[in-house]
């Protein structure tokens, strides 16, 4: 995939041939009383407030990481996108592989294998999602404390590859003769693949952004305009294109639906397994190009100790009193070395005051992620339930589980529009579309998608004899499902709208997790952000009893209203963080004199 420029001028077709530092304007033409922003190259607050902000360009190594994510996501979606039919539906007539083998059935036939029904399919898929978003904790902790991100990704890519090989074996024709045995192998492969994919997931997101090492600076473009080359805008653009790579991989997995229907499931799972071999290969190619953050041994343990020291005097039997104490400005003082008299500092305090500030600001900023399980509840419906909705509509030769690929396709189309047109336009007009506002917008759009799905399901029930995949109601004597007389492509609305909501909320959460975490805790903080998907899956799992077609309309509708309510509460709670954006982005970037980080020369090393 070609690396697009991340320079805002590229959006307006005014790409300069070169850009140079404005040597005369690096703070020297401003009032001497103005101080430079810490960590910048001669940028004052006045510059920051008045000059246009643009994105910088990315190094070659960053695009290698993008390609790793592209290949890994192709393999993930190339398998999970077809889990629903594989588990839910029976083998088609005369099939031993799950393929639809009778030409007359091809137009409306649905591939299948294990015949376990909608609720078991939902339970297995929900467990898969839960597991994949719990295991980032494992990868994040190992990377931040033991191996570093590069080695962690490399090792767990081999683990993930082993899981894919088991999955292929589980779907072979001999295995499918024993559906219970095939189900056991499927679950085993999900556990192995989830361990590998989750560990990769926690580390590849921060690894791509840390390839960019530029600073806040003023630059003069060939047009003569002086602009701010902004790391925060660059990080925003990085994660837009990183998310595009994720969804390009998901688009590549479109072939899985046709492979399953026409050739069987073992072939459909073999293709992504072969593609996954690219991941360790690409990592090896870029080994000497990557910016790598070395592990910092005890930082997670030290973080926990900081929290324990701060909580000890604030704790009360009365929960309201505890909450009141936590919100006090001096809450973190008991954990600061400066709070103790000389000679009375506890031996377990091995950090300095700045580290306590990092922990406090990081936890406060990352509290925004606690609202995300309700956003992911909406997203989870496109993973399987909407595929079941599509199976009850007129397919006209389209595999029902193909429609869900409209979600990544729409994201891939919309991301360049946002990065090159919409966001630069807002910046030129002085509209500060901050992370909190973007996430709030994502909640609203996700809610609209669910209400669309609820209304659609209502009309399907009015036009279809099939209400719960019961053979007596849904099948002809030739075992062909009777659909509602509604074209399946009408279900595209929720998929596209959820994709739009992801651009606002999900991409921003990646950006937020990276920018608000100290350098040596980025994998763990990213794992915490992604853990919200696991919490959403656990919450969704409690709704298994209502995940049946007769209740889909109420299920979708309730998720939509919930997204609106939670999104509004989120915005009211965190809107003040927008005013502290620059401060929060500076977490962990100051000097760390006296802290254990002195053991290393710099926070990153190039190797």
Automatic annotation (TrEMBL):
One of its GO terms (cellular component) is plasma membrane. It comes from the Eukaryota. Keywords: Membrane, Transmembrane, Transmembrane helix, Transport. Its main location: membrane. Residues 1-37 are annotated as: Disordered. The chain crosses the membrane at residues 130-147, 154-176, 182-200, 238-260, 266-286, 363-382, 402-426, 438-461, 486-512, 524-546, 552-574. InterPro entries: MFS_trans_sf, POT_fam, PTR2_symporter_CS. The keyword Transport applies. Residues 1-31 have a biased composition (Basic and acidic residues). Belongs to the major facilitator superfamily. Proton-dependent oligopeptide transporter (POT/PTR) (TC 2.A.17) family. PANTHER family: OLIGOPEPTIDE TRANSPORTER-RELATED (PTHR11654). This is Uncharacterized protein.
